[in-house]
Amino acid sequence: MASQVDVQGLQRELKGFQSDLDIWTQKLVADCEQARTNHTGRVRELDGRSQHLASVKAELDEAALAMERRVQAERAREEEAQRRSESVLAEERALPALLEEQRRRAEEEAQVLSSQSEKLQAVEQQKRARLATLEQALHLYRDRLGLCFEQDPASERLRLVFTQIDPQAPEKRFSFAVRINGEAGRQAAYEVSDVTPAPPGVSALERHLSATGDFAQFVVGMRRAFVKLCSA
């Protein structure tokens, strides 16, 4: 005889399995939801940490760049200081030679000044000697030609004054001034000025005097020019 199936029992058992399955499923879903929530929170935390690390990295990169710039600037200052130090050392090494060169130049300039001073003294001596010669010549002409001279130390000129020229006025003054220009070792040049009254031909007489240095002949020529002026 075939056994009978306990349908109700099976149904109760299935309901029990179904209840356990529902509980397990709910628990599984809850666990998955919790895991998803935890995962989402973890991801957000990691994102926050990542952003923080990125910010820290950016700050560190900026600090490293600033440090590199400071190091480069410091290196540049050190190199500049080294160049200046080397330049100072080079100048110190060259200083003795420069001092010697300055001393040599000072000696040369002193020699030049000494030579110029000697030349000036020679010129002054030459002028004084020529003036003395002129004065001696003038003394010879004073009585015979009615000639006298007046010396002007300030302008270094010698003024010659004639009288006994004009028969109508024997005491009338005829005069001119002479100045010697020239350097030692060169032919003297005579400058004639302030001719009163001015006869013709004075320039030619002045050029002849500078060319020959014959002052006596020049004085005679000037007296003849004055005489000719009066007789004109």
From TrEMBL:
Tell me where in this chain the Chromosome segregation protein Spc25 C-terminal domain is found.
Answer: 156-227
- Which residues, by range, are in coiled-coil regions? 57-137
Q: Which Gene3D superfamilies match?
A: Chromosome segregation protein Spc25
Q: Does the keyword Coiled coil apply?
A: yes
Name a single GO cellular component. Ndc80 complex
Q: Which UniProt keywords apply?
A: Cell cycle, Cell division, Centromere, Chromosome, Coiled coil, Kinetochore, Mitosis, Nucleus
The Swiss-Prot or TrEMBL record describes its family as follows: Belongs to the SPC25 family.
**What PANTHER family does this protein's entry cite?**
KINETOCHORE PROTEIN SPC25 (PTHR14281:SF0), KINETOCHORE PROTEIN SPC25-RELATED (PTHR14281)
Q: What does this protein do?
A: Acts as a component of the essential kinetochore-associated NDC80 complex, which is required for chromosome segregation and spindle checkpoint activity.
Subunit structure and binding partners: Component of the NDC80 complex.
How is this protein named in the record?
Kinetochore protein SPC25
Q: Which organism is it from?
A: Prototheca wickerhamii
Q: What is the lineage of its organism?
A: Eukaryota, Viridiplantae, Chlorophyta, core chlorophytes, Trebouxiophyceae
